[in-house]
Here is the input.
Amino acid sequence: MDAVQKWVNELRIRDLIEVLKERDFDAVMAKDKDDARRIVMDMIPEGSVIAVGGSVTLNETGILDEIRSDKYKFIDRYNTSSFEEMLDKYREGYYADFLVSSTNAVTMEGQLVNIDCTGNRTSQIVFGPKKVIIVAGVNKIVANVEEGIKRAKSIAPMNARRITHKTPCAMDDNCKCTECRVQPRVCNVTSIVDGCHYFPKRITIVLVPETLGY
Ligand code: SF4
Here is the structure.
């Protein structure tokens, strides 16, 4: 990435961190995606039970590979033989020590915005796992909740296609939302985390001054 662009990104993230801390989130800036991986893995003690939210960012940073190591008890939602088993793993996630995920958007006003198909990721960010670690590239930063929802909806067709859900947006040539009402719809649940005051620092947000994920 261009050094000047990275500098601009870092300044924006610095401002955002101040806002997030006022809302009792824990927030840090990583230098790059490798640094983000180190920060995340340093936070997780060996033997921890870890759930993850579906995320391109976790793949791109190598965090998912690290979580798969024998050092942790990974609730592997990707290794299931049936839909029911996958749902059971989602349910197990509520009792995890850590949820590691990205977010669809983080606002400059200090909120996390997410849209889900089943709601496991959106709900576990809100409550369940003792600790939540969110990794977000600079591309996830938006002005406010309205922009966050707009962003989440704009990338939903890509996510639908990635997880092979046969929604109209993932199947036609336009990659556009038609506000479908089909069973595999990936936009069933929207969550907005407006603050972390009841459980201060339960959620740590690791912000990276590079583009990560969708
Ligand atoms: S509502 Fe349906 S068509 Fe629109 S983005 Fe979501 S899954 Fe795609």
